[in-house]
Amino acid sequence: MGVCNVTPDSFSDGGLYFSPESARARIDELISEGADIIDVGGESTRPGADAVLAGEQIVRVLAAVRHAAGRGACVSVDTASPEVAAAALEAGACAVNDVSCLRDPRLADVVAREGAALVLMHTRGTPSDMAGFSRYPDGGYRDLVEDVCAEWQEASARALERGVSPDAIVMDPGLGFAKNARQSAELLKRLAEVVRLVAVPVAIGASRKSFLTAIDPSAAPRERLGASVAAAIHAARAGAAVLRVHDVRATRQAIDLSNRLCEGAVGAKSPCGRGP
């Protein structure tokens, strides 16, 4: 899943693809690099970000969604707004990427009506509530994996009650959302447990996030490529079905080479573990 944020203020690429021309060029680049899904977002979810009205989000995303769909891409719209989701699905998107954990249950109504997929991400509160990048109380969870999965399953149950098909739901554990750096790293490390507990496809968005600075404190978002790729390889080996990334070519190269090196491993135990 390649990221195209048509926003002026996203944490990593804010402003880079805000114009229609730059958004189209970004989408073409992502497709050429091998993205399977184009994720278009019109509202920043960085900590402290102000909410963007549905009408403004629609203005921002529709041209990009239409362009990506016109190129034959599978398109997801990154929004928690039922109005934005409806407009994007009508314009050719086939999935909604909801980072609110179904804060507005009407979003599930839209997804069900259109027969779309729903990527449902675990979080608590809203981006404007978050104190800062990777800041959250250490004691905020009893058992991180169990609590995240239980809260996510409550949201998933609400979606199912509103008519979303069980095979249309994807789980995202929400690295960096209502989780500090240690908690995000632990959640990624224990991702295989998450996959087993939720029993639906799992998406991971670790790309360029602040918890990756645990191994390079001075790295700015665009300087976290190595850590982002390592996180993606680990997630794939743990059973993640979708990797949401900014750097499609580098991530695809790394995973494809890792898989190739693991093919035909002879002898006792392969170090590669489970593949995607």
Throw out a few tags for this protein.
alpha/beta, 41% helix, TIM Barrel, two-stranded parallel sheet, globular, 276 residues, 11% strand
Structure description:
With 276 residues, the chain is α/β, with parallel strands linked by helices. The chain has one domain: TIM Barrel (Alpha-Beta Barrel). Helices cover 41% and strands 11% of the residues. The chain has 9 helices and 8 strands. The strands form 2 sheets. A 6-stranded parallel sheet has the order 1-2-3-4-5-6, covered by helices on one side.
In a nutshell, what does this entry contain?
The protein has one domain: Dihydropteroate synthase-like (TIM Barrel), CATH 3.20.20.
How do the helices and strands line up, and which of them pair or pack?
Elements lengths: L1 E4 L14 H13 L4 E5 L12 H17 L3 E5 L3 H9 L4 E4 L7 H9 L2 E5 L22 H18 L7 E4 L8 H9 L1 H8 L4 E2 L20 H14 L3 E2 L4 H15 L14
Parallel strand pairs: 1-2, 2-3, 3-4, 4-5, 5-6, 7-8
